[in-house]
Amino acid sequence: MTASRVLHLFICGAGPAKRVQDLLDLAHGDGWDVYCVATDSAVEHFIDTDSLARITQHPVRTTYRTAGNTPTPQPDAVIVAPATYNTINKWAAGIADNYVLTQLAELTGLGVRIVVLPFVNQALARNHAFSQSVETLRNAGVRILFGPGEFEPHPPRTGDTAMTSYPWKLAIEAVRN
Ligand SMILES: Cc1cc2nc3c(=O)[nH]c(=O)nc-3n(C[C@H](O)[C@H](O)[C@H](O)COP(=O)(O)O)c2cc1C
Questions:
Q1: Which residues, in sequence order, are CB contacts of 70 under 8 Å at separation 6+?
Q2: 85 CB less than 6 Å from ligand 1?
Q3: Which of 41, 104, 161 to probe ligand 1 with, by most ligand atoms within 8 A of CB?
Q4: N or C: where does the chain have the smaller number of CB atoms within 10 Å of the terminal CB?
Q5: Given 3-state DSSP classes, what are the helix, strand and coil percentages for the chain, each rounded to the nearest 5?
Q6: Measured in whole angstroms, how far is the alpha carbon of residue 29 from the centre of its chain?
Q7: What confidence tens digit (pLDDT) does each residue in 11-50 have?
Q8: Which one of 18, 84, 158 would you pick to mutate in the ligand 1 pocket, going by the greatest count of ligand atoms within 8 A of its CB?
Q9: CATH fold for domain 5-65+74-176
Q10: Domain locations in the chain?
C-alpha cells in the first residue's frame, strides 16, 4: 500500500474558515493526509481547533514546534484557504512575522506546489496592493485561484452569503492536477 500524500492546509481569518470541514472532506476523499495550520485570527474568530484535530487526526499548528512534539511531515502540496487580504499582501511583500507567513515563505522558496483560494470582497480586491501581490506570488510559481471561473470577489457586506458558494472544490482540483 502506498503512503498518503501530505497536504498542508493554511487557514486564515475569513468567514469560510468556519466551514473548512468542507475542504477536509474533499481532501480526505482524494486520499490526502491533511495537516492544518492556522493564523491567530482564524483561531480567535473562526475555527474550532479541537474539532479539526479530531477530523484530521493531527493537532492544528499555530506556532513553531516545541521540543518533544512530533514534527509535521513535509507537504507534497499546500492549500491556503481562505486566504485573506492581509496574509496575501504580507506574504507577497516578504513579511514573515507569524508562523503561517514564515512557513509560506519557506515553502515558496522550496518550490512546493501551493494553491491559494482567496476570500476578499470587491473593495479589498480593487486595491492596487492586492493586484500587485497576486502578480508577485504568481511570478513566484504560486497558483492563485482568483479571477473569472475561479474565486470572484463579492460586494462588501455580503460575505455571509458569498461564503456558502466558496469554491473549495477548485483548490482540491488544483492540487490534484
Ligand atoms: C468577522 C470577520 C470577518 C472577516 N472577513 C474577512 C474576509 O472575508 N477577508 C479578509 O481578507 N479579511 C477578513 N477579515 C479581516 C481579517 O481577519 C484580518 O485582516 C486579520 O488581520 C487577518 O489575519 P490573518 O491574515 O493572519 O488571518 C475578517 C475579520 C472578521 C473579524
A1: none
A2: yes
A3: 41
A4: N
A5: 45, 20, 35
A6: 18
A7: 999 999 999 999 999 999 999 999 999 999 999 999 999 9
A8: 84
A9: Rossmann fold (3.40.50)
A10: 5-65+74-176
What stretch of H or E contains 114? strand 113-118
**Inter-helix orientation angle 128-139/85-92, to 10°:** 60
Whether omega before 16 lies within 30 degrees of 0, making that bond cis, reads no
What separation in Å is there between the alpha carbon of 68 and the centre of ligand 1?
A: 33
Ligand 1, atom 4: nearest CA belongs to which residue? 14
Nearest alpha carbon to residue 15 among 78, 64, 84: 84
pLDDT in tens, 131-175: 999 999 999 999 999 999 999 999 999 999 999 999 999 999 999
Q: 0.90 exceeded by the pTM?
A: yes
Cα 161–164–166 angle (5° rounding)?
110
Residue 86 Cβ < 6 Å to ligand 1: yes
Answer whether 41 contacts ligand 1 (Cβ < 6 A): yes
